[in-house]
Amino acid sequence: MYSDTRSLLVNDVMSKPVITAKASESIKKIAQKMNKYGINSVVIVDDKNTPIGIITEGDIIRRLLSKKRNLLFSKAMHVMSKPVITISKDVSLEDAAKMMVNKKVKKLCVTNENNELIGIISEGDIVKNESYLIDVLKEIIETGYRESKESL
Fold it and tell me: CA-CA distance, 77 to 55, in Å (whole number)?
C-alpha cells in the first residue's frame, strides 16, 4: 500500500514503453499497431523522440466517416491530433486529472527534462489508481481514527 503522506505521481501509474510512430507512417500501419498491441492510441514522435501528435481510434473513425481523405493513402501527419499535451512524471495524479479536464483531453504524454517521451497516462489510469484513497478511508473508519482536539 502507498504511504498516505503523499499522493500517487504520474510516474507511479504511467504506461511504458509507449507505442510510437513517425509522422510519415501510414494510417494502415498505425491501425495494425493498435490492433497488435491492444491499444487505442499511438503517439507520433520526431527523430528526437519528442511527441508531436497522437492518433486515437476515434481520430481514425472520424476521418473514415468524414470521407475528406482516403485513409488508405493517408499518413499520420494528416490525421494526428496536435499539439500534444505533455506532463512531467513528478506531477500528482490529482494535478494530472485537472490538466486533462482543463485541456479537454483523455491522455497526456509524459516527457523528461529533454522533452523526450517516457510514458503515457490516460484518464482510465487515474481512475483505476485513485482507489488507494478509498483504502485509506476504510482504514481510518475501521481503526476509529479521530482528529485530536488540538488540531481542530
Answer: 9
The predicted structure's pLDDT at residue 93: 87
In the three-class reduction of DSSP (H, G, I as helix; E, B as strand; rest coil), residue 53 is classed as: strand
Please provide the size of the chain in residues.
152
Rounded Cα–Cα distance for residues 44 and 58 (Å): 15
Strand pairing report for 41-45 and 117-122:
unpaired
- Asked whether the beta carbons of 51 and 109 are under 8 A apart, the reply is yes
- Between the alpha carbon of residue 110 and those of residues 38, 51, 84, 120, 145, the distances in Å are 20, 9, 10, 5, 37
pLDDT in tens, 101-131: 889 899 999 999 999 999 999 988 888 877 6
User: What is the rounded CA–CA span in Å between residue 108 and residue 100?
Assistant: 7
CATH architecture for residues 10-145? Roll (3.10)
Give the contacts of 71 (CB within 8 A, at least 6 positions apart). 27, 28, 60, 63, 64, 79
Radius of gyration of the chain (CA): 19
Long-range CB contacts for residues 58-63, cutoff 8 Å, separation at least 24:
60/27, 60/30, 60/31, 63/27
Grid cell for residue 143? 481503526
* pTM of the model as a whole: 0.79
